[in-house]
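Budget justification, computational time. The allocation requested in the original proposal was used primarily to generate structure tokens for proteins on the priority list. As evidence of use, we reproduce two of the resulting records. The first is shown immediately below.
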Amino acid sequence: MINVLAVENYRSLRHLVVPLSGITVVTGANGSGKSSLYRALRLLAECARGGAVAALAAEGGLPSTLWAGPEHPGRGPVQGTVRDGPVGLRLGFAADDFGYAVDLGPPPPTRSAFALDPQIKVEAVWAGPFLRPAALLAERNGPRIKVRDGRGWAVLDHRPAPFDSMIGELADPRHAPELLELRERIRSWRFYDHLRTDAGAPARGSHIATRTPVLGHDGADLAAALQTIIEIGDHTTLETVIDKAFPGSRLKVVADGPARLAVELRQPGLLRSLGAAELSDGTLRYLLWAAALLTPRPPELFVCNEPETSLHPELIGPLAELIAAASAHTQVVVVSHSAPLVAALEEVGAGTVELRKEGGRTIVEGEGPLDGPPWYWPKR
């Protein structure tokens, strides 16, 4: 389980170190930095997929994403973007057994057409709750990578490109088995924030009848994902969460032509089942969250952004219970500005991280300078 998430110099996240639990709900007012924290987690996941640099370039490059305030808030006049130290965006996390951190900085002046691409300056992988020299397992400084070899170090011949992460590049278990394990674990992280429920949403149509243990990012394969849970997943919990949300209703996945499946919901008092195209946005969205959270192939980390969108207030409690059921198999982070959902999640044992702005930077409400988890960044 991931215990700590750390971000430095990403948008309003000047320096943020937050604790994570089995269920963590990140909340706060509009503009407090919730979306930035969500994006930072996605950027960390992209490091293992080789897409972090491209993701930053898509946001306008490093200059558009770096903290725009003074380097030392509260020390004399505002310095703007003048920096004393190295310019960099840092991301990291620590789990029960492994930790990882990456430092991305601007490239040297170049005539390349890819001038928006930042460079990976430093990476580190360590054992235990925080970085310390004795716990370091692998370190990348510029193109040079060294890995722990018994009591000493082995410098690898491989020199990754400035835009490639070492955990995405080094897949040889003979050299760095910890990097390979860490890469696969991060690649299992799952994010959902664009589950469409509008009239033209893909989830309102049928889908090819093929086993689907992981719901797609747009929910197009909802019928196949639900049928997969029914056949090889926790169908009892699925029935329970549907009944709590829609008392007396029964979910059905039916054939819709050759080798295609469609969703239907039989509700009390109606003479026929309703197809996905007839369901309200809130009902469809709840079914999408059920398919995503009750996956037969749970990830190490499940992150959902504003799952309360379009839901009727009566569905907030069942949604919290659905998230709690999923947390038995996966760590869950929920980003939400819904006070009822935050309260409902706290009732099922969630830890709350409330963000607010102070002087343009995001801080954790009620947390003093020395209250956060211990964290140390690798040095350039």
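The second record produced under the same allocation is shown here.
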Amino acid sequence: MHNLVSIIIPNFNNERYIAAALDSVLAQSYAHWEALIVDDGSKDSSQSIIAAYAHKDSRIKPTFFPRNQGVSAARNYALSQAKGRFIAFLDADDVWEAHKLEVQVSTMLEQDAALSYGGYRVIDESGAMLGGFLPNSTITYNDMLKTCQIGNSTAMYDRDKVGTPQAGIIRHDYELWLSILRDHCAYISPPPPPLDDICYLARIRIHSQSDTANKLKSAHRQWQVYREILQLPLHKAAYYFAHYAVNGVIKHRFYRKPSKARVC
């Protein structure tokens, strides 16, 4: 089907959360999807949970790596198997709101957008709400160099427009967005009405094992992207890193307070 959505879900030792992630996929109001879940050599009960869901619904297509190869390898393998026009991403410890795919496909077609994203709520390990984040309505390549406002589990791109980019090796999703934004602009989905009533597309979980919670690790990786991947000269890398640091503090403050967005 032309508007099939391929959902990319890498998983490693997420037995506590993977069922909730898959339940949120099954609950989608948009039914034309395939979920390509790659288990990256989990040592917990993740594989049996995933297998049970695949048995329940043939749209869930699992792959089980015999050993851990890293999230980039898992994500890129799933991308290589994807059949859909639209590529959506869901981290195994996050969950989607029920109309996420329906809203996003519709608005991407209306906007003729190559890459879209949305607002999200932030939850803790038990699923309790911590706050929310509302990204800007549009994001350019230069914007992305200064800060990443795209929550991975809200992102979707159109392969008819961008081809088959792959996840990066250091900051996997961030490098992917940069590769797309070199030639395209990203748009929020759905577009905000006049009163800025933006809706949440997902719930992104912060816990002790998540990259979101490890600020020093994230900062080091950001610097590596500037210097090793993009090969920016030192003064430019320092300029963008300063923006990244300040914007990170601002974003963290949003994470800890309610916002005016609604659930789609």
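A brief technical remark on that second record: Residues 119 and 200 are 5 Å apart (CA to CA).
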